[in-house]
Design a protein that fits this description.
This protein is elongated. It has a six-stranded mixed beta sheet, with no helix packed on it. The protein is mainly beta. 6% of the residues lie in helices and 42% in strands. The protein has two domains: 83 residues, RimM (Elongation Factor Tu (Ef-tu), domain 3), CATH 2.40.30; 61 residues, SH3 type barrels.
Length: 165
């Protein structure tokens, strides 16, 4: 686990007075403004976030030290990171995506399928992207397909649905 978690990204400028459009990766989009100062991935810049309004595709926000459209445009694509200590504790059956990336995935018999490379959500629930010896596998992140996540051991047990090959 890392001491910081990616909670959003700057999608570009919104308007002409330095406001930005934020894409929040939080369960409740508005929570992005509740974790204190957010930093860039490299940790070189820090911003306080004040939400201004919902906008198409995200949230309008003012960031500290961003006052012009040009400054806001220059931040397009920058990810925003919160200290893990500022995030709420999760129930036993919920996980931060950042904690799943890189975990080894094995089938119920112990055969290694690969490692979690990414987590996707296309609207119907999370999907684990697992890179392994047989290439990429997409596994639904459900209790049936993924009965065990052991963060302490760094391992996931997955029973992916059968595919016609």
């Amino acid at each position: 686990m890392t001491d910081r978690v990616c909670v959003g990204a700057i999608a570009g400028a919104f308007g002409v007075r330095g406001e930005v459009r934020l894409k929040s990766f939080c369960t409740r989009a508005e929570d992005i403004a509740t974790y204190g100062a957010l930093t860039t991935e490299d940790g070189k810049r820090s911003f306080t976030v004040r939400l201004t309004r919902p906008v198409n595709g995200g949230l309008g926000a003012r960031l500290s030290d961003v006052e012009t459209k040009e400054q806001a445009d220059a931040l397009k694509g920058v990810t925003l990171w919160a200290d893990r200590s500022a995030l709420p504790a999760l129930p036993d059956d919920e996980f931060y995506h950042a904690d799943l990336i890189g975990l080894e995935v094995a089938d119920p018999g112990g055969v290694v399928l690969g490692r979690v490379r990414a987590i996707h959500d296309h609207g119907a629930g999370d999907i684990l992207e697992v890179a392994g010896p047989k290439g990429l596998q997409l596994i639904p992140f459900t209790r049936v397909a993924v009965p065990t996540v052991d963060l302490a051991a760094g391992r996931i047990v997955a029973d992916p649905p059968a595919t016609d090959e």
